[in-house]
Specification:
Length: 267
């Protein structure tokens, strides 16, 4: 039973049943001892998503995390947009206040937090990094890494799309062959396994896969077999959830091992 005074938030996407966000945020809610609920929402289409946003504007939701396929719709529906979300080209967080929907993106923070946790020796500033994919996930990754001072190289099957993204962010769009030379980091922002020659990467290169189902993707498995450091998508999911939780509930996430809980649930 939902308590009348509880802060209500959640995550919206379609499909949403696979999402680990409710587990993570509920564990933090319990650990922090706050009166709040966090539920999954599965709008059937964009119109249904906008109806959910209107519920938030009416004061019946504190906020929403947003996942595929509604991140662009969240950006478009917002009354105000942070510079981070505008640069990322999408929003994964809507916070409702005074009848307004305020959009932000914590995806870049999540990516950088995952790298800091699982590849602590990586220093992307001034070094070439490769982002595979020019969709929403790739854009958020490219923006965050560019802001960190990296020399970002965008690779996409449709080169024109990579060029458009590169021009927007002030980075480079290159062929896959040229991209790998000297790359300190390769981020897979594609939905599947990329076909790349890992032997062309330096021995200290880092691979990151933004997918967390499965946790050990074929891309990461191949990289680890070559002795490369791998960074998984679950670390990014938790990394982007931390600032989201604080924005939604006004407190920092407590010291709960949500990664262990997520791994147990994924099994």
């Amino acid at each position: 039973m939902i308590r009348a005074g509880a802060l209500k938030a959640g995550v919206a996407g379609n499909p949403i049943g696979h999402s680990l966000s409710p587990l993570i945020h509920r564990a933090w809610i319990a650990g922090a001892g706050i009166d709040a609920v966090y539920d999954p929402y599965e709008p059937q289409d964009e119109a249904s998503f906008h109806a959910l946003v209107d519920i938030g504007r009416a004061g019946r939701l504190r906020g929403l995390n947003v996942t595929a396929p509604f991140k662009l719709a969240a950006l478009a529906a917002a009354d105000s947009v942070s510079d981070t979300a505008r640069r990322a080209g999408s929003a994964n967080l809507l916070v409702f206040e005074g009848g307004r929907a305020n959009a932000d993106s914590t995806d870049g923070l999540g990516l950088m937090a995952a790298l800091a946790e699982q590849a602590p020796d990586l220093r992307p500033g001034g070094r070439p990094v490769v982002v595979l994919g020019a969709g929403g996930a790739g854009r958020a990754a490219a923006a965050a890494l560019s802001d960190a001072g990296a020399e970002v190289r965008i690779v996409n099957r449709t080169h024109a799309k990579a060029e458009a993204l590169a021009a927007d962010l002030g980075v480079a769009a290159v062929s896959l062959e040229a991209a790998l030379d000297g790359a300190a980091l390769v981020v897979n922002a594609l939905s599947g396994r990329p076909d790349i020659d890992l032997s062309r990467l330096p021995e200290d290169a880092v691979l990151m896969d933004m997918t967390y189902r499965p946790l050990e993707t074929p891309f990461l498995v191949a990289g680890r077999a070559r002795g490369l450091t791998g960074v998984d998508g679950l670390a990014m999911l938790i990394g982007q959830a931390r600032p989201s939780f604080e924005a939604l509930f006004g407190v920092s996430p407590p010291a709960v091992d949500v990664r262990r809980l997520a791994l147990e649930a994924a099994r």
